[in-house]
Amino acid sequence: MKLDAKEKRRVEKILEILKKTYPEARIALRFSNPLELLVATVLSAQCTDERVNQVTKKLFKKYPTVEAYAQAPLEELEQDIRPTGFYRNKAKNIKEAARIILEEFGGQVPRTMKELLRLPGVARKTANIVLTNAYGVVEGIPVDTHVRRISQRLGLTREKDPNKIEQDLMAIIPRKDWATIPYVFIDHGRKICRARKPLCEQCPVRELCPAADQFLKKN
């Protein structure tokens, strides 16, 4: 997505305002090592971070190692993560990912995008989250439902596919902001730019948002 000079200034202003509005924006998932972050991120699909944190509080104590997940009875693991939804598929992916980590990566969660993407249940969003927050490796921008919605409403992308949205964002957002902007967008999405009824009248970037007028008219 190519921007002209006017659009570049608009995007710069949006990022500047939102970063100042949400200076404490950071990942909400609780974890203490790369394995915990990987599991929590897999569980967060179609589930709130709050619910995931409730589940992982017990889960991480019960399964403290990669071996523990790999050896866990599948049905038991399913029940342990059931409140996060889609628990059968998630349990299967976590157990298989643990096996691959043990057999192919020496028991350590991979540190590269290419290797992480080999794990079941891991797409670019999850890989980006793990790389950035566990290893400090910033290769891209994780696109969740909030980032997707905010990016589309602010006119930062016309795409619907998360990978294409990520490419658009990487082209217009400075690399130094890739690690923080997703969480800024997430905070903005939760507090102001909600899915059903965005609070446009309270939005700090309302004047810069091409979608604001249509939502204000509806309200």
Automatic annotation (TrEMBL):
Co-factor: note: Binds 1 [4Fe-4S] cluster.
Gene expressing this chain: nth
Protein name: Endonuclease III
Transmembrane segments: none
Molecular function (Gene Ontology), one example: DNA N-glycosylase activity
Keyword annotations of the record: 4Fe-4S, DNA damage, DNA repair, DNA-binding, Endonuclease, Glycosidase, Hydrolase, Iron, Iron-sulfur, Lyase, Metal-binding, Nuclease
Function summary: DNA repair enzyme that has both DNA N-glycosylase activity and AP-lyase activity. The DNA N-glycosylase activity releases various damaged pyrimidines from DNA by cleaving the N-glycosidic bond, leaving an AP (apurinic/apyrimidinic) site. The AP-lyase activity cleaves the phosphodiester bond 3' to the AP site by a beta-elimination, leaving a 3'-terminal unsaturated sugar and a product with a terminal 5'-phosphate.
Reactions it catalyzes: 2'-deoxyribonucleotide-(2'-deoxyribose 5'-phosphate)-2'-deoxyribonucleotide-DNA = a 3'-end 2'-deoxyribonucleotide-(2,3-dehydro-2,3-deoxyribose 5'-phosphate)-DNA + a 5'-end 5'-phospho-2'-deoxyribonucleoside-DNA + H(+)
Annotated SMART domains: ENDO3c, FES
Cofactor: [4Fe-4S] cluster
Gene3D superfamilies: Helix-hairpin-Helix base-excision DNA repair enzymes (C-terminal), Hypothetical protein, domain 2
Domain of life, source organism: Bacteria
NCBIfam families, sorted: nth
EC number: 4.2.99.18
Naturally occurring in which organism (per UniProt): Thermosulfuriphilus ammonigenes
Enzyme class, broadest EC rank: lyase
